[in-house]
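Hey, quick one: can you model this chain's 3D structure?
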Amino acid sequence: MKDKVTAALLAFFLGSIGVHRFYLGQTGIGFLCLIFCWTLIPALIAFIDFIIFLTMSQQSFDLKYNRAYLPNQVAHPYGSIVPVPQKDKIAEIERLHNLRERGILTDAEFEEAKKRLL
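Sure thing. Here's the predicted structure for all 118 residues.
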């Protein structure tokens, strides 16, 4: 599970070469930072990332970067993570199905949320 403070420190000290992006599993962006580190643009972006990581709530950080480690929890569109009781799983799957039918969720997002519920 990735840590918010570790990501912030990596962004501050080694962000100009994209180490924090590799740590967060964003290897494509990490390689871009590594390739363009001579322009100092990745350093500026890393400093902004550093500030964002420090001001971001732990819940938001987990929702964005630790989704694979959050079993039996459904991520809602407004950023909150709500544990789903066993008896409400069917109702939650129906709600997700309605969101998919309206085009708010993609098929992949629906299947991922359904797997987390079951």
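One thing worth noting: Residues 70-117 form one domain.
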